[in-house]
Please model this.
Amino acid sequence: MFRFAVITFLALSGMVGLFDSSVFAYRNETTFSIIRPKTQLFNFSVEEIQSARLKWLCCYGVLLSKDEIKTLVTLLSKINKKDIKPYNGPAPKGGPTRFVITLVSNGKVGFVKNGEYLLVDGGKVYFPEFSEFVDQIRKDKSRFVEGFTD
Model:
């Protein structure tokens, strides 16, 4: 009986992990709906961003500079809601690269890089330019911060 209970618990834990929204983009809906909802998925300006962090594995990351934030905003403004395709694949493995943007209003917006795709809103967007942007940031190993948390 105990064995059955343990197996059931492990199976349910695994199922919950498959649907964990933290592997996908997240956003504070109340804050985000106030910010000029349009056809663009990310429709905010540089002035509305307090900070932006690139994170990977459990605890490594880089705090983006103002110039990098400007580039990030420019790149994200190219994504339209209609470009998002359903993502039914597994969660990214190996501590995927994720971005966390903190807005001046204390709202947070996040998304995950999965190869050449950006996982956002439970879907995916093919976005190779973004991969190049991330690779440029990760080249400078002197900027890495260990112990990054949300």
In short: Residues 12-39 have pLDDT under 50 and may be disordered.
